[in-house]
Amino acid sequence: MISLKSCSVQETHEIASVLAALVRPRDLVVLSGGMGAGKTAFTVGFAQALGVDEEEHVSSPTFTLVHTYSSGRIPLHHADLYRLGSLGEVADLGLREQVDLGAVALVEWGDVALEVLGDALILDLRNDDNDDDVRHITISVIGHGWDTRWDRLRDSVRRWSVAA
Ligand SMILES: Nc1ncnc2c1ncn2[C@@H]1O[C@H](COP(=O)(O)OP(=O)(O)OP(=O)(O)O)[C@@H](O)[C@H]1O
Ligand SMILES: [Mg+2]
User: Fold this and answer.
1) 11 Cα: distance to centroid of ligand 1 (angstroms)
2) Which of 15, 42, 135 to mutate to test the pocket of ligand 1 (most atoms within 8 A of CB)?
3) Which of 3, 9, 13, 21 is the most buried (most CB within 10 A)?
4) What phi and psi values does residue 69 have, to the nearest 5 degrees?
């Protein structure tokens, strides 16, 4: 597990851009954490770093469930499962199938559907009790997809890291 501290939206964008540099087709990233934790903010920074065109405006897919951005280095599916009622509905979105075709998915509230989503990098964002601009971010993995990238990931986020 990697533990980080972000002190601003800008830093969260920078952390996201480090992740975007390491991400590969077939990666699924779960974003967990409460409302306003910064899941969409992370996605905005990630998409930008992936090279998604500014014209493909990245916004919260709360009502449409999935937004797809195709102008970056890898096709990006951005999902928000907050409004989904059942695991069957999550399966019907076909996120895993899309990812396996060579895309990347960022899934807000994906922690409620880990058994459907399968292997994933999990980013958990938590607010700070005292400072509105601080977020505590932990990174963990399900599966082996990051085994060969884990040390590089740890090194590239070192400037934000805190003791676990
Ligand atoms: N360090 C930080 N990292 C990320 N966002 C921050 C940070 N500090 C303050 N913020 C603010 O917190 C808010 C995060 O909102 P965002 O929509 O990204 O949350 P969310 O986790 O996607 O919420 P929801 O579950 O409602 O979709 C933004 O208004 C952002 O400006
Ligand atoms: Mg959001």
Assistant:
1) 12
2) 135
3) 13
4) -120, 125
